[in-house]
Amino acid sequence: MASLSSPWVEWAGEYTKAAQAEALPPNEWAARVATAAAAAGERGDVQFSAGLAEMLARVVLSGESSGAAPAAAWKYAEAALAARLASPALLLTLLSSRVIPQRVARPTAYRLYLELLRRHGFKLCFQMKAANSNKIRQLIDDNLNLSQIFGFSACEPGVFIVEFVLCILWQLVDTALDDESLLELTPEKKAQWPTRPQDISAFEVSFSEQKPEKIEKLQRMNSVITIELIGHLLHNKANSVGTIHLSVTITCGKLIHLTSFDDVLGSISAVDSR
User: Fold this and answer.
1) What pLDDT digit, counting tens, does each position of 117-167 carry?
2) Ramachandran class of 23: left when φ > 0, alpha when ψ lies in -120 to 50, beta otherwise
3) Is 146 within a domain?
4) What is the rounded CA–CA span in Å between residue 59 and residue 184?
């Protein structure tokens, strides 16, 4: 993961480590980071910051193996996206390539990724108006190879939105098929983007999920949520590429639960008692 850090993002990384150790509430963390970003005066990469998205992805993916640190990192990521401090599209892109292939071994991480996707993955119009939108699109294209796969340059905002939404849908469908061992029945016989780990050592997040029963329950829950998310995306039966972004705009409000991110973490913990 190439570094995009500016001085204020580097400061935010160190501050995030300290905040995790102190169990600082996400809203306080976000307020302090927002203040630092404004003081830095780097207006081109403050709102929907690419550097902050990269830093948060790195923190989430390299969380400590025990304690509250991993959960806190996900909470800070959600707070940053809600406050429009970090680019949701870029953060989700960086997480998807690591979390989706490891969803079987790390179902908690995949569940939280799905929640971020559900809440923030489809708010693309706002991001396309940001001063750094060209850089965001290029970074995402470099990671997902959108232009190469779809055959159209992702530099133009409208084309990018369609390609990115199609990519998300494609990833979810491939994941659902892989969960049911059905990928072999597709013409390609494999996923377009990785759905299984190619190097198990590449994923460093470790959660306290030693109980096989809990892992199995979370995996089943994640499979259901993945299919539900696909259903939401297809709710309006948009049958042409040109109308997909409209479908997402109409349905994205339905993708956000009224529960807080803490409630999501609580529901994961409660799996043990079911």
Assistant:
1) 988 988 787 788 888 889 999 999 999 999 998 888 888 888 898 899 889
2) left
3) yes
4) 35
Cα separation, 77 vs 88, whole angstroms: 9
Q: What sign does the dihedral 135-169-185-225 (CA atoms) show?
A: positive
- Dump pLDDT digits (tens) for 234-260: 764 443 444 444 444 433 433 334 456
For the whole model, what pTM was predicted? 0.80
Q: Would you say 144 and 150 are in contact if contact means Cβ atoms under 8 Å apart?
A: no
Q: How many structural domains are present in the chain?
A: 1
Residue 255 belongs to some domain of the structure: yes
> pLDDT tens digit string along 38-67?
887 655 556 899 999 999 999 998 863 334
Instruction: State which residues form the domain around 259.
Output: 7-273
CA angle 77, 79, 82 (to 5 degrees): 110
What contacts 180, CB < 8 A, 6 or more positions away? Answer: 223
Residues with Cβ within 8 Å of residue 10, at least 6 apart in sequence: none
Within a domain: 1: no
Token reading at 99 = 């979390």
